[in-house]
Amino acid sequence: MSYDLHESLRDNVRILGDSLGRTIADDLGTGFVDKIETIRGFAKRGRQGDQQSRRELIEYLRRLPDRDLLPVTRAFNQFLNLANIAEQHYRARFRRVEDYKPGSQPVLSELLERARRSGHSPRKLVESLAGMRVELVLTAHPTEVIRRTLIQKYDAIDDCLTAIESSTDYLERGVRAEGRLEELISQAWHTDEIRHERPTPVDEAKWGFAVIENSLWQAVPDFHRDLDNLLLETAGERLPLDAAPIRFASWMGGDRDGNPNVTARVTREVLLLGRWMAADLYLRDLEQLKAELSMWKANSALKAEVGDVAEPYRELLKRLVSRVEATRDWAKAELDGRSFEGGPIIENRDQLYAPLLTCYRSLCDVGLDTIANGVLLDTLRRVAVFGVTLTKLDLRQEASRHAQVMEELTDCLGLGRYREWSEQQRQEFLLEELASRRPLIPRRWDCSTESREVIDTFRIVAAEQPEALGTYIISMAAQPSDVLTVALLMKEVGGDVRLPIAPLFETLDDLNHAGEVIDRLLALPGYRALVGDGQEVMIGYSDSAKDAGQLAAAWAQYRAQETLVEVCRRHGVDLTLFHGRGGTVGRGGGPAHAAILSQPPGSVNGSLRVTEQGEMIRFKFGQPDIALRSMEIYACAVLEATLLPPPAPRAEWREEMDRLAAVAHGAYVGVVREDPDFVPYFRAVTPEGALGRLPLGSRPTKRRQDGGVETLRAIPWIFAWTQTRLMLPAWLGSGEAFARRLEDEGGLEVLQEMRDQWPFFGTYLDMLEMLLAKADVGIAAYYENRLVDEPSLKALGEKLRNRFTRLHEVLLQVLDQQELLENTPLIRQAIEVRNPYIDPLHGLQAELLQRNRDADGAISADLSRALMVTMAGIAAGLRNTG
Fold first, then answer.
1. Where along the chain is the active site annotated (predicted)?
2. Which of 273, 289, 549, 601 lies at a CB distance of 3.0 to 4.6 Å from 645, suitable for a disulfide?
3. Where in 184-275 does DSSP place strands (E)?
4. Phi, psi values for residue 137, rounded to 5°
């Protein structure tokens, strides 16, 4: 990694920071900018080891008058967002891999060459890519802290940086770009960064569609074009026209697990919005094609379809434009509640794809291959990936909600109390009803509002084209009957549509029994007749880590996948694993390439589903160049895991992990579940209580509003600890596990052997290293000093920080390093650049939390807003929320 590349990043950070300083000076005066510089100076010197400066920083912040607190927090928040823009720009420009680790950058051309040397023929490579099915599922978890209006301004700022860098020979262009940059940064400064209202599920879906419109719409054909060129070089052929190695699904508007705001009406509206936007985007493509395909040479098939006309391609495209316009108008009418009086609409993918394919084949047949493989091919690729709905909408609901429907139904029919039946009784009843031709649900059934909502969701399934919908996910699934219940409801209410049904195993106990549940399910002849030879299973990362601690959860996830692979192989069923990862390490996050290659051998067999959530959607797919690189990373990793899978772990390594996980789990539970001081400490030292006021997403922060920490969702659980920089959920227990092993003779050698030879363990250590580098026990101690009075709680805090320090020591031993991130200098640099801007926000947040508590939550609107800005700024600075 060259010095010049680092300097380009530093230069852009400096350009953006200087512009922000001038904007603030214009608004609030140079005296205020001097205050910001004073604060930053204290923070920077404090980071360099000057303890006096750290104390002076805190004192300075505590003396700030109320009127200054909001603009100070806004200034540091804005700088951190601008630093993120500079880093994103750097990644896009220089195509750096997401983890910035030298030697780990996956390049598809090199992988194809490795595969060929391993004995895979060029034809096999084409078939593997053509048959690959990677679905990236965009989810609306409440972790995107930046408003959409600001994201648009930040994208425009990125464009200005590109213009400035490319204006060496055209100085006037550079001057214009610099002027535009100043304007955009001023716009951002004068825009409220905090939403005043929580977004609705429809708002979230619109945000997801905007990512497709502004980024993926361009990135998808670019990705396929690069893939085509590579395959032409290595195998002499293109990817098949209808191949879509990477597709997109969504939970936005379909995920009703614990979110009462997602209703059947909302789901229907989101589906219609997708149809409307797809039609609108395709119309732009078709108008361009109509303008460009002015040729007269055509094959007999096209002539037979359009007749003897001078411009056959334009004639066919004109007819297609008419139908797509009608589709757009129909969707708009449905959204507005109006009747539609127009002509025939596009109902499915084939109706859009077939006319374009006719044009393509005609151009190729008459020798105009260059034209065929231009913008027309790009549109065909888009249709293959996005269909006529942009994404497939998944539906998710909790297993207990389906059980409630069956309870009410069996009670109504005089069949008994469903919830009191044994698992065997439930299965027998459900299988019998699945085979029955008569309807089970009475036509006039007066069920509860909750059950009616579940039924209405399945009515949406019945009314939709199957290609509009993805998978039906059952959260908190624990038994085969949980899956059979959904299959029965789909049969009873869902018409002829049969969606894939994926049980979600997300607690430690559920993960440990996942293989057994799927084995019993696939052994049921009635179920196999229903689903055929494919089964999807979702692995939950967030709740398992919250339930058991990160190390024990990671090992349970690995073992569950191994067992599921073996069970499905034995039953002759194709398994698709759906990874419910979050953005943080504590929720299964991390670089995609490393994460995929660390999965058990055989678990990634050409197919993969994975969630992309919140701010990670913007970081990975928010701009065309970044999105292109992200898709290449996924394709490369899945192809490598399929053709060149990692070795199975040795038996002695598995025994090591069993012991490590047991120790880590015991230590984690001993604190989180069994220490009576833990919950009071968590609530006292973190901003958990204030999180509910931050309007991040449409879901409540708790599954049940009357519950305690155990009902808190994994996202706010992680978010709260991240804000204090203790990052506790992602490491608690690991230190005890490693330290105990290092006490044994030969323990260090075994752990280092696993680190070097087992991708699963090596990747886990990499993620732990990155997390510890972002953590800061000094900052965590300050929150405690400011917010905690009870001696027993302070004692617990000291114990937790001591555990962290011990983990830091043993991790460096295992990694054989003197300091964290020795081998990933750009991550280290990014953290170091941000810290002097994050530290003041921590100081201000702790101060504002205390003032809020002193006032019983009745602080002024400006101070309340300042508190929320500190949360947004810290999240932006760490590039993780939940």
1. 141, 546
2. 601
3. 246-250
4. -105, 110
Distance CA(176)–CA(646), nearest Å, equals 52
- How far is CA 748 from its chain centroid? 35
Contact between residue 107 and residue 629 where contact means Cβ atoms under 8 Å apart: no
Cite the beta strand spans of 429-573 per DSSP E.
469-475, 501-505, 534-540
Judge contact between 239 and 126, C-beta under 8 A: yes
Strand partners, 395: 472
SS3 383: helix
**CA 605 – CA 601 distance, rounded (Å):** 9
Residue spans of alpha helices (H) in 312-448 = 312-336, 349-365, 369-371, 377-386, 399-412, 423-435
Query: Is 101 part of the annotated catalytic residue set?
Result: no
CA 838-844-846 angle, to 5 degrees, is 105
CA distance 724 to 776: 8
Residues 6+ apart with CB under 8 A from 385: 220, 244, 246, 247, 248
Structure tokens belonging to residue 498: 């049969």
> Tokens in use for 840?
């003041």
848 pLDDT above the threshold of 70: yes
Number of helices and strands (H, E) in the chain? 38, 8
pLDDT digits (tens, 9 = 90+) for 300-347: 999 999 999 999 999 999 999 999 999 999 999 999 999 998 889 999
State the amino acid at position 223 in one-letter form: F
Closest CA to 558 of 646, 643, 474, 479: 646
- Tell whether the model's pLDDT for residue 701 goes beyond 60: no
Residue 284's contacts (CB-CB under 8 Å, 6 or more residues apart) are none
Comparing CA positions, the residue from 634, 639, 717 lying closest to residue 137 is 634
Read off the pLDDT of residues 475-522 as tens digits, 9 standing for 90 and up. 999 999 999 999 999 999 977 788 999 999 989 999 999 999 999 999
Q: Are the C-beta atoms of 170 and 235 separated by less than 8 Å? A: no
Beta bridge partners of 472: 395, 501
CB 675 within 8 A of CB 117: no
| Contact predicate 715/143, CB 8 Å | yes
Given the residues 101, 141, 224, 491, the one annotated as active site: 141
Q: Report how far residue 314's alpha carbon sits from residue 749's, in angstroms, rounded to the nearest whole number.
A: 70
Which pLDDT band holds residue 110 (cuts at 50, 70, 90)?
confident
865: which residues sit within 8 A by CB, 6+ positions away? 70, 194
Q: Has 794 been annotated as catalytic?
A: no
**CA–CA gap between residue 177 and residue 189 (Å, rounded):** 18
Distance of CA 747 to the CA centre of its chain: 36
Q: Which two tokens stand for residue 801?
A: 């920080």
Return the DSSP state at 729: G
Q: What does the block give as tokens for 361?
A: 């084949």
pLDDT at 653 over 90: yes
Q: What's this model's pTM, rounded to 2 decimal places?
A: 0.92
Instruction: Report the distance separating Cα 310 and Cα 783, nearest Å.
Output: 76
* Strand partners of residue 611: 137
Q: What is the pLDDT of residue 748?
A: 97
Cβ atoms of 803 and 730 closer than 8 Å? no
CB-CB contact of 849 with 686 (8 Å)? no
Candidates 153, 290, 491, 546; catalytic one: 546
CA gap 371, 375 in Å, rounded: 8
Integer angstrom CA distances of residue 511 from 62, 396, 588, 607: 48, 18, 15, 21
**558 vs 544, higher pLDDT:** 558
The encoded tokens of residue 522 equal 């696939």
Q: How far is CA 199 from CA 204, 252, 621, 697, in A?
A: 7, 12, 21, 6
Only one residue has tokens 């917010």, namely: 787
Q: Two tokens at 691?
A: 């999180």
For residue range 178-208, what is the model confidence (pLDDT) as tens digits? 999 999 999 999 999 887 777 889 989 998 9
pLDDT for 881: 52
